[in-house]
From TrEMBL:
Annotated organism of origin: Enterococcus moraviensis ATCC BAA-383
Keyword Hydrolase annotated: yes
Entry keyword set: Glycosidase, Hydrolase
Protein name: 6-phospho-beta-glucosidase
PROSITE patterns recorded: GLYCOSYL_HYDROL_F1_1
Hydrolase listed as a keyword: yes
Catalytic residues of the enzyme: E374 (nucleophile)
Entry GO MF terms: beta-glucosidase activity
Family: Belongs to the glycosyl hydrolase 1 family.
């Protein structure tokens, strides 16, 4: 069983998790640069509380500030990717490399030059770029001055940034993703939206207003991008994963339905151009009063996405009454532990069939081409000599690739491609640790940034190389 001709097999990274060199060549601080190597990084930031990630008591380690030095190693890394045989690569552009504070009139040319070089390397090896414009990454100046995406002013600043890079790289990038995992503004608001709170505010009001501003910026970016180059394709991007009911009790089933509706709200707007009907009652019940103008509604309706991209790591599970039920982590939040899924070497439960279910769910709902732009296993690897035998990663990838091929060939899902997340080891969002490794390429660094930085091919590199070479068929080999 294989993918169709032209299927994009690739890998993905983000600027914030790989580039390092956070003040190099005119760049200034981003929100991501303030995430420490501790358990506070995913929590909402309340400015009226004494201990926040913006006011650390002790000297902290900030992993993204050094990361894996992709800023200097991109040529070596892209060469390794070309040897892997992939035909596509997803990366993001750091907003604060192009507009260091977000409010400059003109771009930082050194920042543009850096991404020009990356594109040049990809073109040399005939690797298709898939570019994320904002991957949990905005200039920290906009956090301080406007509270990030809470303020409508940031919409105009973002569109100016997006227009600048789309104009500068016109004709070289076909697939643009304006925002990474937009729905995560509801789960990790500082990371997803650069927003902070005080304890007297309704956090949902701020989060959904920030989400609306991102939706508006997304639509305006599509409008401008199509004017620059009508052939450009724009995608929604969400953190996806089927939410199962814990039991077949109708109360549990309805709880799962509500959870999924809320999770798919942002992609619904990006695809259909309007808010789903349930939001009127949901907003009223939660005392949310969105500032949405008639012009906003028109912009959203007229500028919908061409495809729906998503990350998938595991499914979720919920119940109407969660008291006493064991919880486990999933992508950015906690979920009820699914008793039918096996134990995993990752903190997330392993559910490869859930990917096929999710693909069918999204395709049935949206009838747009889908694109898996993140999937992978983050876990510890053991370096033995100069080898990493990561059979557990191979098993994870095999199960998920098998199920995407089944969805494509047997279920009729329209699928553009598959991007393995963190194809080169990087610092994780949830923990900040490089030791939570995702890649088929090992980076010799520890969580505090110590090590040679050398790159090594894992056993999974050879396995994925064969999958790409056979257009997926090797995933079904024993």
């Amino acid at each position: 069983m294989q993918a169709q001709t032209g299927f994009l097999w690739g890998g993905a990274i983000s600027a914030a998790q790989t580039e390092g060199n956070y003040l190099a060549d005119g760049r200034k601080m981003s929100n991501f640069d303030y995430l420490p190597l501790n358990d506070q990084r995913l929590k909402p930031v309340y400015l009226d509380q004494q201990h926040t990630i913006l006011n650390p008591e002790n000297k902290e380690i900030y992993p993204s500030r050094t990361a894996i030095d992709f800023y200097h190693t991109f040529k070596e890394d892209i060469k390794l990717l070309s040897e892997l045989g992939i035909n596509s690569f997803r990366f993001s552009i750091s907003w604060s490399r192009i507009f260091p504070t977000g409010e400059e009139n003109g771009p930082n040319q050194k920042g543009l030059n850096f991404y020009d070089q990356i594109l040049g390397e990809l073109e040399k090896y005939q690797i298709e770029p898939i570019v994320t414009i904002s991957h949990f990454d905005l200039p920290f100046h906009l956090v301080e001055k406007y509270n990030g995406w809470q303020n409508r002013k940031v919409v105009d600043l973002y569109v100016h940034y997006a227009k600048t890079i789309m104009t500068y790289f016109k004709g070289r990038i076909k697939y643009w993703i304006p925002f990474n995992e937009m729905n995560m503004v509801l789960h990790i608001p500082f990371i997803g939206g650069g927003i902070t709170f005080n304890s007297k505010e309704n956090p949902l009001q701020i989060q959904y207003q920030a989400g609306h501003h991102q939706l508006l910026a997304n639509a305006l970016t599509i409008k401008v991008g199509k004017e620059i180059n009508p052939d450009t394709q724009f995608g929604a991007m969400l953190a996806a994963g089927k939410t199962y009911a814990y039991t077949c009790d109708p109360e549990d089933v309805f709880a799962a339905l509500k959870s999924e509706r809320e999770n798919l709200l942002f992609s619904d707007v990006q695809v259909f151009g309007e808010y789903p009907k349930f939001t009127a009652n949901f907003f009223e019940e939660n005392h949310i009063q969105l500032n949405v103008t008639e012009q906003d509604k028109h912009i959203l309706k007229e500028n919908t996405v061409d495809f729906v991209s998503f990350s998938y790591y595991s499914s979720a599970c919920t119940s109407a009454n969660q008291d006493g039920l064991e919880k486990v982590a999933t992508n950015g939040f906690m979920t009820v532990k699914n008793p039918y899924l096996p134990e995993s070497t990752s903190v997330w439960q392993n559910d490869p069939l859930g990917l096929r279910i999710t693909l069918n769910q999204l395709y049935d709902r949206y009838r747009k081409p889908l694109f898996i732009v993140e999937n992978g296993l983050g876990t510890q690897d053991v370096l033995q000599g100069q080898k990493i035998d990561d059979e557990y990663r191979i098993e994870y990838l095999k199960g998920h690739i098998q199920n995407l091929l089944l969805a494509l060939n047997e279920d009729g899902v329209d699928l553009i491609g598959y991007m393995m997340w963190g194809i080169i080891d990087l610092t994780s969002v949830s923990e900040g640790r490089i030791s939570k490794r995702y890649g088929v390429i090992y980076v010799d660094l520890d969580d505090e940034g110590n090590g040679t930085g050398n790159r090594l091919k894992k056993a999974s590199y050879d396995w994925y190389q064969e999958v790409v070479k056979t257009n997926g068929a090797a995933a079904f080999n024993d």
